Amino acid sequence: MLEFKLPEIGEGVVEGEIVRWHKQPGEPVEANEALVEVMTDKATIEVPSPVAAIVRELKAQVGDICAVEQVIALLEVGSARPAMSPVAAAPTPAAAAPAAAPSNMSSGSVLATPAARALAREEGIDLRGLPTDDRGRITKQDVLKAAEAAKAPAPVVTPPVAAAVNGKGVPAPVAAPASAGKAPTPGAPVAQPAAAPVHQPHAAEAAAGDEVIPFRGMRRRIAEALTRSYTSAVHYTYVEQVNVTKLVRLRQEAKAAAAEQGVSLTFLPFIVKAVVHALKKYPIVNAELDEAGGRILVKKRYNIGVAAATDQGLMVPVVHGADRLSILDIGREIARLGEAAKNGTAKREDLTGGTFTVSSLGNIGGVLATPIINFPEVGILGVHAIRKTPIVDDHNNIVVGHLMNLSVSLDHRVVDGFEGANFLQEVRRFLEDPNLLLLAGI
């Protein structure tokens, strides 16, 4: 009987959610045949069986979140020899070697990243006593906070203040803190670190006639990512109205030529290109905050995520190297990525590595939205509908033009309001006069 363990399915991936079993107990599976579908925070991957076997027992059910190397099924091995699969769950020589007994400080029963376990051993931190993130695991940042708290001197708290003195209703004076140069009052109680608030999941009861949809798979991953972003980044939004009359005309004139090259030209490639030029002028918007390392990483690559609606929820495929692609190349890549996201064939590299995101509601458009940042990026651009509108031209004549609203949400911890506003004004400049894209080499 072979213990089928969840293999390592990506760099830095420590867990995955079971979203589908391709085989049930009693069914045969061939070597290299898809056995289980696993969703990580990066992508959804089909994991094959390493051997020809009979599935005897499923140790994990659909919706379960399992750690890498956790046993998720039992296979009765047939006569076929194991296949050489790069993601096979069969034990590797390193895994087969006897492992050192885990210390109490990094017990294997705790779900934590490898970096968190290594740091916990160095600092002597018991992982079992630390709070977890919204996915139930402990990160390196959690261990760093615990180590700092352990090294910090215990704060001194003054005695409770009396309600009155001598019955005259005069409040008792508050004792000066020890930091003011005075020794703490003998016998004063020492404050204990406040316990981290424990998130209590909301429970609901379905009434007769209610539809119950399992909260798992892509929908749960989206919820986890949005919660992490909204509770980590300090969001603010800046909005601008853009006169895209010239862009509408240029795109209309270029549609036929683009179609000859197999590209259905939309406004998105122009917007992506304008964003790239603005990021180059205001690079702090193309950054990431490394809180654990105490630094800001300013990216010198321009990988633009383009949010796409799918049946499973919102996904963000990434146009890699957008600065090196032409308008038509970007249009072609956006179409390919959007199709792959919708039919579930997007690869891990198609969904990772973004440095900034563009979210367009297309024809729905709307007047204003405050998009949530695609963490750990520090900015996201919301694109709204283009509408015919009476506008005043340079000669004070009222003419029919095309206006569009853009809204950019930014992480105020990294991007100041002045920089954020100037970034969007630079995007506006390129979209209001698309000939600038030609001067900038497209």
Structural class: alpha+beta
**Can you say what the CATH homologous superfamily of the largest domain is?**
Chloramphenicol acetyltransferase-like domain
Q: Give the ordered list of helices and strands.
A: EEEEEEEEHHHHEHHEEEEEEHEEEHH
Largest sheet: 6 strands, mixed
- Number of separate domains: 3
Q: Radius of gyration from the CA trace?
A: 28 Å
Q: Approximately what portion of the residues adopt beta-strand conformation?
A: 15-25%
The share of residues in helices is 10-25%
Please state how the strands of the largest beta sheet are arranged side by side. 9-18-17-16-12-15
Give the number of DSSP strands. Answer: 18
Q: Which oligomerization state do the chains in this entry correspond to?
A: single chain
Fill in the CATH topology of the largest domain: Chloramphenicol Acetyltransferase
Low-confidence stretches: 79-109, 156-185
Number of helices: 9
Detailed description of the structure:
With 442 residues, this protein is an alpha+beta fold. It folds into 3 domains: 95 residues, RNA polymerase II/Efflux pump adaptor protein, barrel-sandwich hybrid domain (OB fold (Dihydrolipoamide Acetyltransferase, E2P), Beta Barrel); 48 residues, E3-binding domain (Dihydrolipoamide Transferase), CATH 4.10.320.10; 205 residues, Chloramphenicol Acetyltransferase (2-Layer Sandwich). Helices cover 25% and strands 23% of the residues. The chain has 9 helices and 18 strands. It has a 6-stranded mixed beta sheet, with helices on one face. Strands 1-8-6-3 form a 4-stranded antiparallel beta sheet, with no helix packed on it. A 4-stranded antiparallel beta sheet has the order 5-4-2-7, with no helix packed on it. A hairpin with a 4-residue loop joins β10 and β11. α6 crosses α7. The longest helix is centred in the C-terminal third of the chain and has 17 residues. The chain starts with a strand and ends with a helix.
